[in-house]
Amino acid sequence: MSDRSGTFADDPFKGRWPTSHERKSGLPWDASYHDGPAPWDIGQPQPAVVRLASEGGFAGAVIDVGCGTGENALHVASLGLPVLGVDVAETALAIAREKARGRAKDRGIEIEFAAADAFQLESLERTFQTVLDCGLFHTFDGEERTRYVASLASVTEHNGTLYVLCFSDGGPDTGPHPVSQEELRAAFNPSNGWDVVAIEPDRLQTRYHDRGAPAWFATIKRT
Ligand SMILES: C[S@@+](CC[C@H](N)C(=O)[O-])C[C@H]1O[C@@H](n2cnc3c(N)ncnc32)[C@H](O)[C@@H]1O
């Protein structure tokens, strides 16, 4: 369902179906990166990702799905792990590649950034031991979540680990896409090949929340 007819050149969605977020905003994700940093683009890795990395949470080949301008992916790569960051926003990928050029040269890190649709990850024909979703899951509606979770399963090694950092419905000043624990558990469950190991309260930093917005940090195993 992700292929559309017509020419790609003048299609801001490059042949894929616009996501629910894009339909609501009327703009492709790429537009978020045109006029300065996007609200979530804090110019450094999310503290929750840095903490997880320092605790040894990342292992093997890593994919960052919806990587944006690459701060989280670059941080994980700095640990010495091979990382692939994917996104549909070409402008974000160009910024990420530019950052990587500087840092890879200095520190010998192994990182790639590629255009890929989170609903079609099987087209990468690769699998990963660790999968990171920082701020993507929460942008999808119910129907999209089902397709996205199946797509994630196609690239996650059995016994591999998926981390989802998403806005939560807990407390005041939630982000624009609050997600409940129940929604996470409904999306990832034993019947579709996942085991939710933990869902911890956390914070997701944005350019508009002084102390970050309430978030869930979910650790989910591929069975
Ligand atoms: C809220 S931003 C988070 C970006 C990044 N993870 C960060 O923490 O800065 C969501 C990202 O997902 C990307 N995205 C949205 N829909 C996507 C899809 N179907 N496939 C791949 N990336 C997608 C957007 O372009 C955007 O960069």
Explain this structure.
The protein has 223 residues and is α/β, with parallel strands linked by helices. Helices cover 27% and strands 24% of the residues. The protein has helices at 20-25, 47-54, 71-77, 90-107, 142-155, 181-187, and strands at 62-65, 83-87, 111-115, 128-134, 156-167, 194-204, 213-222. It has a 7-stranded mixed β-sheet with strand order 3-2-1-4-5-7-6, with helices on both faces. The longest helix has 18 residues, at 90-107. The radius of gyration is 16 Å and the shape is globular. The protein binds S-adenosylmethionine.
- Indicate the radius of gyration in whole angstroms: 16 Å
Question: What structural class results from the helix and strand content?
Answer: alpha/beta
SSE sequence, one letter per element = HHEHEHEEHEHEE
Mean pLDDT: 93
Ions and ligands: S-adenosylmethionine
Q: How would you sum up this structure in a few lines?
A:
The protein is an alpha/beta fold and 223 residues long. 27% of the residues lie in helices and 24% in strands.
What are the key terms here?
223 residues; alpha/beta; 7-stranded mixed sheet; 27% helix; globular; binds S-adenosylmethionine
Strands, helices and their partners?
Layout: H1 20-25, H2 47-54, E1 62-65, H3 71-77, E2 83-87, H4 90-107, E3 111-115, E4 128-134, H5 142-155, E5 156-167, H6 181-187, E6 194-204, E7 213-222
Parallel strand pairs: 1-2, 1-4, 2-3, 4-5
Antiparallel strand pairs: 5-7, 6-7
Bound molecules: S-adenosylmethionine.
